[in-house]
Amino acid sequence: MTARIGQLCPSFAILAAALSFAPATHAVELNPAIMAYTTPDQYKWRDPTDKADVNQAILYGDPTKPGLYIYINKLKPGRFGGPHYHPNDRFITVIEGTGFKGTGPVVDPTNAMRLPKGSFVIDHAQKVHWDGTKDEGVSLLIAGEGPATNIEVPKVAGRFTGLDPAAVSVKLPDQIEWKGTGGNRTAVLVGDPDKPGLYVLMFKWLAGNFSRPHFHPNDRLITVLNGTWWVATGNKFDPATQTIPMPAGSFVTHFAKEVHWDGAKNEDTVLLMVGNGPATSTRVEEAK
């Protein structure tokens, strides 16, 4: 199911117990030359026993090397790291649980900023910050350009008094700016999908709406944040018989210039998309 993506990996373990998706039972199959996907129960965690304070599943790329990467970090409750920085920007979505964040060398969990599920964060390049968890764990979807090394700095005693916006940018769930009308909404978080360069956006399919067969000029890397996303390959448009469900936590790649279509059935569905623009859509003639 994951042909052409060298390092797609396994599950939001927090969600896995609630999911029982078995693609082999569906009457239709996706063309793996058009679309690759991994459902949460298929992810491969760095620590299969899930006992580590920080566990990781790499979805795309290699964060130790130059180039685009996407991975999940899962932190146990009651865990804070020291102050550090990264050589490049990191784009972070809280996909489960609650995280906490601070900037500068003073690590002060009591006064850290709370980041609930659905928050979007940018750790700006070479700016010192720290993060962790309190009473519950957190799962973070992290994307960026590698290498994604951590450079630690000495901790300083004191009281944390608020985020430095030059070091960390935050959009809480109620601050996500949705735009659009009709069957979907878009919130552009990073870049401009109409232009060359890296973009990150959230895309919301409203219940009962689908795109028509189309293709994009570049790969699109998509994580299902909420709801069930229904996808299909090829140019035969028939949501009732030709679609396969992607539950929350699934990771999907639309390969460049390959025809597909997708949407939502009986519930709204929210996706996180990462790619290099332009992210234009080109309609194709539908099969009769």
Write the SSE topology.
Blueprint: H1 13-16, E1 35-38, E2 54-60, E3 67-75, E4 84-85, E5 90-97, E6 99-103, E7 113-115, E8 120-123, E9 129-132, E10 138-146, E11 151-152, E12 168-171, E13 184-190, E14 197-205, E15 214-215, E16 220-226, E17 229-233, H2 239-242, E18 244-246, E19 251-254, E20 260-263, E21 269-277, E22 282-283
Antiparallel strand pairs: 1-19, 2-3, 3-10, 4-11, 5-8, 5-10, 6-7, 6-9, 8-12, 13-14, 14-21, 15-22, 16-19, 16-21, 17-18, 17-20
Q: Give the % helix.
A: under 10%
How many domains in all?
A: 2
Q: Describe the strand arrangement of the main beta sheet, using strand numbers.
A: 1-19-16-21-14-13
Major sheet characteristics: 6 strands, antiparallel
User: How much beta, percentage-wise?
Assistant: 35-45%
* E-strand count: 22
- Counting helices, strands and paired strands, the structural category is mainly beta
Low-confidence stretches: 1-25
